[in-house]
Amino acid sequence: MLMGLGAAAIALLLAAGVALDLLLGETPRWHPLVGFGKLANTIERRLNRGGLRFPRGVLAWLLAVVPLTLLAWGATRIPAAGGIALMLHALMLYFCIGLRSLRDHNLPIAAALAAGDLPTARHLTSRIVSRDTANATPADLAKASTESLLENGNDAVFGTLFWFAVAGGPGAVLFRLANTLDAMWGYRNARFLQFGCAAARIDDALNYIPARLTALSYVLLAPTLAGKRLAWRCWRTQAPAWSSPNAGPVMSSGAGALGLALGGAAVYDGETEQRPPLGSGAAAQGADIQRAWQLVARTTALWLAVAAAIAMAISLAGGQHA
């Protein structure tokens, strides 16, 4: 296996990283991704100027991601590190994954909507999405939170698990740093159109397989057979209309699995943007935020179970050939 880890070790470390995340959540201060964000901002301010914005963006991505990924790789390759190296893999996964963070940021929105506290719901939603929420209705807020949960199930959770399975802790670090840069620089505006192009395309490449595995997982975990069929149909028919090659499959299949009509109008910078439809059914309500979280949580459990099953199958096959 890559990074010197066997299938059994990968399965155990995946479970350990998820367990640490659910138990501890985000560190209240000195979180590595917060520090990385500050580093990325400094690099961007220094390089995103003048001409040749695209090659400057490539250089910025390399300066931000490669040294830290190599540092993570080197830390796990210390001779005779043994159990310490395994602990480092688990800690890297813990710092990179954001399952509990999704719950902690979204379920309070559902609670505020249930209590009829629209100002609080608007404030909480503004912290997780880039769309305008000052005049958002309860339905707008429920839709925004549900879409965020479905999309970030891949970006903050499943993509990280996938790349950890491929390359251990350093793989998770590489993916999460690249995904963070896409979130910071991957805008199609005057400032980032050229400079952030490399960050956006690299994130698209790293997310291509995880996004489709996530979409397939949402299909499989739809609560009814009709829901599975709807999720599959929405994925195949609606995803191509989305500009993002990865968000489209993930959100369309997730919306179909939940039986919700998402997408459509959203307000950005004071302008209403008509986005392609996602899913089919009723408009999202506050209670659907909880349902979206449960879908993400069940998908996490599915991925851990698959990793354990693969490890067991390899172990049994090895025993038969011994």
Automatic annotation (TrEMBL):
Coiled coil: none annotated. Keywords: Cell membrane, Cobalamin biosynthesis, Membrane, Transmembrane, Transmembrane helix. One of its GO terms (cellular component) is plasma membrane. One of its GO terms (molecular function) is threonine-phosphate decarboxylase activity. One of its GO terms (biological process) is cobalamin biosynthetic process. Its main location: membrane. The chain crosses the membrane at residues 58-76, 83-102, 156-178, 301-319. Pathway: Cofactor biosynthesis; adenosylcobalamin biosynthesis. It is found in: Cell membrane. It is a multi-pass membrane protein. Converts cobyric acid to cobinamide by the addition of aminopropanol on the F carboxylic group. HAMAP family: CobD_CbiB. Belongs to the CobD/CbiB family. This is Cobalamin biosynthesis protein CobD. The gene is cobD.
